[in-house]
Design a protein that fits this description.
The protein is an alpha/beta fold. Helices cover about 30% and strands about 15% of the residues.
Amino acid sequence: MSVAATGSTPAALKVLLLHGYTQSGPLFSAKSRALHKALQKSFSPRPVQFSYPTGPHRLMPTDVPDYGPPDPDGANIEDVEAFGWWIRKDTDDGIIYRGIDQGMAAIARCIEEDGPFEGVIGFSQGAAAAAMVASLLEGNERFNAFAKAENEGGIPYPSTFKAYGGFVQQPLKFAIVYSGFRAPGKRYEAFYEPRIETPVLHFLGQLDSVVEEDRSRALVAACEAGEKNVVIHPGGHFLPSQRPWLDACVNFVKSCTEQPAGRAGKEQEDDINDLDVPF
């Protein structure tokens, strides 16, 4: 539910957090504590509220890359606490994200229950989902793009993102993606064409061996600000928690949320180059 300002207490900055493949909401909460602490300190006295839904797909051991039971007798399938927003399947008809409709429905349900949100932050598969969510909330132009793409083999606009003749919430002010990537193929083209207008900050790890750089760069190219909003950190497949990378995130959120209205335009794109961060 939405938290309104009462008396001298400002309304919370609400942010949706989407975990990576094989993770869960509680696990991602533990891994992003430094980020939450940095944002809370920076925005004080305004509270910062993170919401951590868990993907609807509980993964089987065969769904987890390089999974191996911890002992020769094997592990009980029910003991695997690993979830995803969808499950990738390579088919003769191309790559399919099985269950993506349920994944989007779970996110829409969180928006209805805990939102509206000002921004979304995601990691890995959750970063890909975060970009999708930012795209879906961009209004009628995006809805019409899905309708057109559906006639050419694309997936339909997720019905759970439509509500009461409109959308489940207003457009987001920002999205931050760590090790994100673009969904491949024409099925998912409407997420990215036209390009995503919501300001998106991309974190890429120089040593990331899970999400190849070209996949992340494809998502960067699908966003209006493009290379202007890319941060390269020297690590691998994780959320960097050192001060420079936290500052990059905090300053980006401030630049988006302290503007007077909605999605940022050319003014936001120009200002991003002046932020005191290691872009």
